Amino acid sequence: MAAPGESAAVAAPSQPEVAAGSAASAVVLPERLQRREAERQQGVERQRQKKEAQVVKEEQSEFFLAAFAREREAVEALLAAGTLEEAAARLQALQKLLTGSVRFLAPYEVRQGQETVARLQGDLAARRQQLQPKKKFAFRALKKEAAPGSAPRPAEPAPPDPAAPDPGPGLAEGESGGPPLCGFSGAQDAELELGPAELLQRDVLLSELRGCRVRLRGNPNTLRVRDCSGCTVLCGPVSTSVLVDGCSDCLLALACQQLRTHRTRDCRVYVQVTSRAVIEACSEVSFAPYSWSYPGIERDFESSGLDRNSNNWNLVDDFDWLATDRPSPNWSLIPEQERITCWD
What we know:
Structural class: alpha/beta
């Protein structure tokens, strides 16, 4: 039997063991505190960076609004004086200023800027038409070349009527109501084409076409493609907006600032767009980057004010799909191996 002293010696920890346990606890506690302190410091740093970024964004927005207002007033003064070439150059600079500032502007500021640019572009086109002699219109040559039974002619321009009623809700967003529309309507299985002289800063309408191939080489102000089926539409850079509405089984190549697609199905869209494309009431719409080209397209991009380095072709907002954790089933990207590279 063990002596009482021996039992106590076994049960009680030795002094070195007690010291070691205390040291271990002392080490664990500071590590936890250090980890919490590091996390707190990271949170403080994130908040600081977020606040600084917000301040920078607000300063950039204020600078943009001031610069945009100055350029807008300059363009308006040049238009009033009839100095149209200088007005066009300043308007192009205004468009580039807006395009380059989209990333830090609020959506309503972008929308207001786009509406202002579209209005000024419409005013410029109207002033050009007002000051340009009738003989300089290029539609007569196009009429002579057209053979009987061939593609329909573009709509004849009419002098602007200040008393004419407002065109109403049929206009695409950002489209001006001043200059008359040009384009094609009601054709079937036809080759249709317009060039730079007919398109420059004009509002273009393509409607009720069936099985047609349309080439628009130039820089329109806006483009509407409405109620077309089985068509190929190739268009140069559009300064403001493109509206595709009620179309089916179409192939479109479009470069623009805004793209809105309504009531459209089974269409392939090759697009360069500086904002996010929007679809609504659409199905089986697929997208790829804009790749159509023609002689003079770089000049038309310069005239349009679009930034060739800014392309959100794969960013699409579906107004009918609100889920954020699943992609919309109404649109897709065209696989790279299936994209068109040769358009002729």
